[in-house]
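Ticket reopened. Same input as before:
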Amino acid sequence: MIELEQIGKRYVRPLPDGGTIDALANVSLTIARGEFVAITGTSGSGKSTLMNVLGLLDEPTGGRYAFEGQEVSRLTPAERARFRNKRIGFVFQAFHLLARTTALENVELPLVYSERASTEGLAQRALDAVGLSDRMSHRPGELSGGQQQRVAIARALVNEPDLILADEPTGNLDPQSASEVLRVLQQLNASGRTIVLVTHDPAVASWAQRIVRLEGGSIVGDRRSGPANPALQEAL
Amino acid sequence: MTTSRLVQQSIRSMRRYPLRTIVMMLGSVVGVAALTFVLSVGRGAQEIMLRTVRQILGDQAILIQAGGGTMMGGPRGGSSRLTLDDMEAVAREVPAIDAWDPQVQTFNSSVKRGSAAATVRVLGESERWSRVWQRGVSRGQDFDASAVTGMGRVALIGETVARSLFAGDDPIGGEVEIGSVPFRVVGVLDRFGVDLHGMDRDNEIVVPVSTMMRRVKNVDGIGGAKLVVKDGSREDDVAEQVRRVLRGRHALAPGQPDDFHMMTSTEIHQMESKIERVLLLYVPLVGAVALVVGGIVAAVLMLASVSERVGEIGLRAAVGASPDDIRRQFVLETAATIVLGGLAGIILGVIGVKLATQRMPINAPFSWSAVLIGLAAAAITGFASGVLPARRAAQLNPVDALR
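Engineering reply: fixed in the latest deploy. New output:
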């Protein structure tokens, strides 16, 4: 589904330095539909940059990015926005829920920008999928961290995207809420969704079927762990 | 993004930040209220002013008042030396004068009939009063020249006086006491209503000027006079001739100020246009300034809101809002807030108009054009204030905004 070919992301340092930094260099990666991939690495390894490129939030400075065979690395900002809306769902470390807004309204947000004629019932169904159908009219302040992140997952799901990108989704959560959130992601994957999980934490990464390790902007490891590792999961 | 979803999002944002929304509205509430009020009341006030002036002066008349000073500053007390002889001399020496009527008045005379009493304005006038002041007698008859020369104790009373002293009885032929002087009622004055000053002009009694001077007030001078000019276009000319005659008779040296005051319709028109300028220019200007200041405040608040909501903007971008969607949302949010304030301003303005028409004899029909102008002004301000914050929001890079 995703084909990255020699992707590079080069930043020019501010003057007077004027030098360049390669946040990503020659990254080639293929992700098939239905995979659950973890991208790991220390901070500064380029995993966030890779996530932004994958999510079409940022443009690579070199290489080719094909999504379902469509070249997407040179779209305009408006085209990228439409593409994100239809094909990609995001889950962030800081949840990014709108304050003073109900869970249902938060989940509805991607539908606001959707081209769908009817969005009836989609948000309720998404909240149902993450087990929060009884919390629809609660505001973020009235929910636990784990529940807030599940609302964020429902929001990522609501427009039925091809790909869900989760950036350190457990970073702000206690271990119990973390495994609750990871279990939801795993269930979504089991029901056929493609998930890319970015994390620095090997224990979190162990929930995925495949772990891609980045270092200094390049891929240094790519292994399939097969089924989830129960011992590591317990360590959470 | 469809317009209805856009509007819904804007309303939700306004609800999420209620304090900011209210402060943003203030300027447009005040501005639009002032605009609506003035645009509605202004016309009515102007109309009644013109009507009153026409009632007092007609198209071609000169008013003379004893004592110097200006009319607007109030009469200047002291020795008033304007006499009936002065006015007769003026009428004799200035042929352009068509008719004239002297006036001697008291504002609060107590008038009695048996046990019934009233406080009324009493006017002493000549037999020419009806023609000069354009007001007649609705019942009974006017007094004639012989009543004036003979100091007749005859009176014409207004409808309010008739009601308070005679109740249901026919006042014609009845007797009233002004002070302690008995008068016979010979007629009832044409209904007039309330004038610009809020004075009930039906609470008046007209008696012969000679009787008023000798029997009621015991004075030698008159309070003033109205002169009707034959040719209205020569009014200022005629006024100058009248002034020369009066100054000559009062033996005023050159450089000495007039000891009487003259008012022509030219002067009235100047006064009127001054009031009109205040009403139709300055008050809307204040409204416009309030709107502009409110617009600037709204823009600043919205800019602060954009900085505060960077995360939200990044999120919206991530879930599919294009830069254009974000721009439109912030423009609409600002505009909707200000237009809502404008609506509140219109309601406030209409309430103001209602209060004003209750307290003043002003006719101010509900003005749709005032409402439309107020709303349009608010909408323009709103969209203008929204442009800058919206551009700032749309320019945010989603990656930076989400950090």
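Chain A has a mean pLDDT of 91. Residues 175-190 of chain A form the longest helix (16 residues). Please confirm and we'll close it.
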